[in-house]
UniProtKB/TrEMBL annotation:
<dbReference type="GO" id="GO:0008360">
    <property type="term" value="P:regulation of cell shape"/>
</dbReference>
<dbReference type="Pfam" id="PF26298">
    <property type="entry name" value="MurL_epimerase_C"/>
</dbReference>
<dbReference type="InterPro" id="IPR043689">
    <property type="entry name" value="MurL"/>
</dbReference>
<comment type="pathway">
    <text>Cell wall biogenesis; peptidoglycan biosynthesis.</text>
</comment>
<keyword id="KW-0573">Peptidoglycan synthesis</keyword>
<keyword id="KW-0133">Cell shape</keyword>
<keyword id="KW-0961">Cell wall biogenesis/degradation</keyword>
<dbReference type="Pfam" id="PF26299">
    <property type="entry name" value="MurL_N"/>
</dbReference>
<comment type="function">
    <text>Cell wall formation. Catalyzes epimerization of the terminal L-glutamate in UDP-N-acetyl-alpha-D-muramoyl-L-alanyl-L-glutamate.</text>
</comment>
<keyword id="KW-0413">Isomerase</keyword>
<keyword id="KW-0131">Cell cycle</keyword>
<dbReference type="GO" id="GO:0009252">
    <property type="term" value="P:peptidoglycan biosynthetic process"/>
</dbReference>
<feature type="domain" description="MurL C-terminal">
    <location>
        <begin position="312"/>
        <end position="401"/>
    </location>
</feature>
<dbReference type="GO" id="GO:0071555">
    <property type="term" value="P:cell wall organization"/>
</dbReference>
<dbReference type="GO" id="GO:0016855">
    <property type="term" value="F:racemase and epimerase activity, acting on amino acids and derivatives"/>
</dbReference>
<dbReference type="InterPro" id="IPR058741">
    <property type="entry name" value="MurL_C"/>
</dbReference>
<dbReference type="GO" id="GO:0005737">
    <property type="term" value="C:cytoplasm"/>
</dbReference>
Amino acid sequence: MQYEELRQKYTDFYYHSFSIEEDEKQLRVTYDFEINNLSHFHPTFTLAKPDAESIAHDPLIRGCAFSLGMVELISYWKISCPPHVHVCCALDEDQVRWWKKLYFNGLGEFFYKNGIQTNEDDFMDLAGGKEVLPAITAQKQTTGNLIAVGGGKDSFVTMDLLKEEKAHNHAFVINRVMSAIHSAQAAGYTGERLINPTRTLDPAMLALNKQGYLNGHTPFSAMAAFAGYLTAAVWHKKYIVLSNESSANESTVKGSKVNHQYSKTFEFEQDFNAYVKKYLPADIHYFSMLRPLSELQIAGIFATLKPYHSVFRSCNVGQKEEKWCGHCAKCLFVCIMMTAFLDEEEVVSIFGRNMLADPEMKELFEELTGMQDNKPFECVGTRDEVNIAVAMGIRRYSRNGKQLPALYDFYTKTPYYHFYQSRSVDWHSYNEQNLLPEHFAAIVKTKLKEMSDESGKLED
């Protein structure tokens, strides 16, 4: 179905309301969305509580629940992209601008893949309603870290960096994503130390997707940010700790702002903090522990965390079965990163095969290295980082006296190899574009110095 045709047929989207139910053990938020002449939708978010205290009418909790609905609605709006969006609660001009910026940039991949030509002004008219949320005046005492865990190498690096604070940490995983849950458990987060809220999608949306209505990528990490903020408010956590690195800032489509990872960028991290400071004030701080680091630095640190090599999973294709599919761009990217620091046998033991020896993965390899204009629409590193990792991997094969696998042999015949062949990870690099509180920044800098001191051994 076509974008303009759908917008003419389904002109209005309504965020009618949100309701909060609770008992002594959990909190449940239910949303009421509607596309006129098409369907109602009632997604939910259910979260365990630390105690029996009633919090459903707490202004901060209500504000967080409403805001989570604001980011959830985009998953339903995209079905037909109605030009007019009506929201139950009042929005000031700054909020309208803030949400439209998130929606437009967070849907960049969706617009690109569906061939939709639009702009931030015209794609949506967003209007608030008459209900005014209660003012947030009292701030409760908060403590400790809420660590978002996705199951990949990044999460393990963050959990390891914060291992000395484990007594004050909670891990946070949305839904029963077993690869992420098992990762948190492997790092010692079990029982009440693992907070595992449930987010449901309305079946009507999934049914409409199957009927040919518009579908595509939405800013999941923005949803996770607001879900994390609500969770931190309920559990009185002081820090929400992400594992987004600096490479998330690079666009996916060369020469454009289209970025698969928009809601993992430093720009969004800054915007989110500005929003919650103004509209959801609390002693809760949201930041990415790994923002100062590159993918190469993270991979190098993870290479030293041997006990986790058999546990971590980043493959979206094999996520439900907790395996690496061994054929997608994400698998190939992680393989390239780990090959820079581990011998072939270790890499094969992780992935089950040597993807670098598979000529059928050449196109994905070219996309990752920048030989083609667009990177894969996956959470992968910068083109520069990938090329440096490839060069490091080639040197490792050479030192070990091993024949180069097909993709690396191909690479040595390109101009890229001559440019990158002597490049390596820079352990002295620390990206100052970050929001790490001083205490956390000191932990990262100490780790970088440790890695710099050990770098000779690591790359041999």
